[in-house]
Amino acid sequence: MELIVTLVVAFPLGFFVRSRATAYIAYIAVHSFVFSFQDTELVGEWSGGDYSAFPKDRGSVPWSYGLVNVAIYAAGFGLVTLDHAVRTRVRRRVSQAWAHLDVPR
Length: 105
What we know:
It is rod-shaped, with a radius of gyration of 20 Å. The chain is mostly helical. It has one domain. The protein has helices at about 1-15, 20-45, 65-100. This is Integral membrane protein.
């Protein structure tokens, strides 16, 4: 669920939000909600006997779960940054095209 939301939300935030800092904060807000919801679901399933996300032993640390979530989180920031750069490049090209036409906007 977290991966899908990251892919669906990070691109529009990076492309359509003018300020990169605002896009980052919006991504943090969306990701924190989705991560909390996902974690609550997985802990509920774990307490019911499903050990596919977390180990059976309560004393062990689920490093793989943490590493995968950090990678998804970082990829979302990368998408926001990449899409902001794409937006800047597209706007620059459109401005140059309008400048060559000598038509008032």
